[in-house]
Design goal:
Elements (H helix, E strand, L loop, with lengths): L3 E4 L5 H12 L3 E6 L2 H14 L5 E5 L5 H14 L5 E4 L17 H16 L9 E5 L20 H22 L6 E6 L7 H7 L6 H13 L10 E3 L4 E3 L8 H19 L4
Parallel strand pairs: 1-2, 1-4, 2-3, 4-5, 5-6, 6-7
Antiparallel strand pairs: 7-8
Helix pairs in contact: 1-2, 1-7, 3-4, 4-5, 4-8, 5-8
């Protein structure tokens, strides 16, 4: 099987659980993380599941937009085509909220980086490809300009705002890709799964990660997502549904896309 699926944040949590399922099904994988030792360990685990697949490792800190661009360049250097990009990496709380680019790390990792990576990888995707963005049941209205500065709001508030922003740009970008480009979805993998993020944020073990992993596999490859580009899938209710009503605010959506384009334009201008 020659299909290639790239997963950000795939050395633990839902990303790792998803990679394991995909490895078992025989898909070639591009796995990403911030720590090379963890990446090599993850590669070994996945090859232990299926030693017939090809696995490439990619190291990058996604709070740094230059590293995100380098990640995209590395992916393109390895693959002439990718079938699915799963923008899984995300953060809830961080030790230092200000990024190297002077932005809020939480918005960078959860909103801006997936946008930049998707844009930068369009050359190796076509209309049969898919982009899966990890959303959440936690969604809150935001001012698009919040993405341009460091927020003083609590982690939970910023997280909910960032996930709605991600869901919102998914909706608007899908219209651009409608005739030429990948299908793109926002997916809530299910609430309170047993990821490190949930343990750190809420102090609970959480549910079975495979609940989320299975829906990400379906979003990546399954027929039930065909023709659903731009839509939000809520795995808490196991159906496509409308996200927070703010996602339909066309004026805010247009401003959000303009801001995102302005933030990533300097990086896209120098991509290889």
């Amino acid at each position: 099987m020659n299909r290639v699926i790239v997963i950000t944040g795939s050395t633990d949590g839902i990303g790792l659980a998803t990679a394991k399922l995909l490895a078992g099904q025989g898909y070639n994988l591009g796995i990403h993380g911030r720590n090379q030792a963890k990446l090599e360990n993850t590669k070994s685990v996945l090859l232990g599941i299926n030693d017939k697949i090809q696995i490439e490792t990619f190291k990058a800190d996604l709070s740094d937009l230059k590293q995100t661009l380098s990640l995209a360049d590395s992916i393109k250097a390895h693959y002439g085509h990718i079938d699915t990009l799963i923008n899984n990496a995300g953060v809830y709380s961080v030790p230092q909220t200000k990024s190297v680019d002077g932005l809020d790390v939480r918005y960078v990792v959860n909103v801006i980086t997936p946008y930049l990576l998707t844009r930068a990888l369009l050359k190796v995707m076509n209309d049969s490809s898919r982009v899966v963005n990890l959303s959440s049941a936690a969604q809150a209205p935001f001012e698009p300009h919040e993405l341009c500065s460091v927020s003083l709001m609590p982690d939970g508030v910023v997280y909910a705002k960032s996930k709605l922003a991600l869901t919102m740009w998914t909706r608007y970008v899908s219209k651009e890709f409608e005739n030429s480009g990948p299908s793109i979805f926002a997916v809530n993998p299910a609430s309170m799964l047993g990821s490190k993020m949930v343990r750190d944020a809420y102090g609970v073990n959480g549910g079975d990660l495979n609940i989320g992993a299975k829906v990400l596999v379906e979003a990546s490859l399954g027929k039930s997502f065909t023709g659903k580009t731009g839509q939000y899938f809520d795995n808490d209710t196991a159906q496509f549904r409308e996200p927070h009503p703010f996602a339909k605010d066309s004026k805010s959506g247009e401003v959000l896309i303009t801001i995102l384009n302005n933030l990533v334009a300097p990086f896209l201008a120098i991509q290889h």
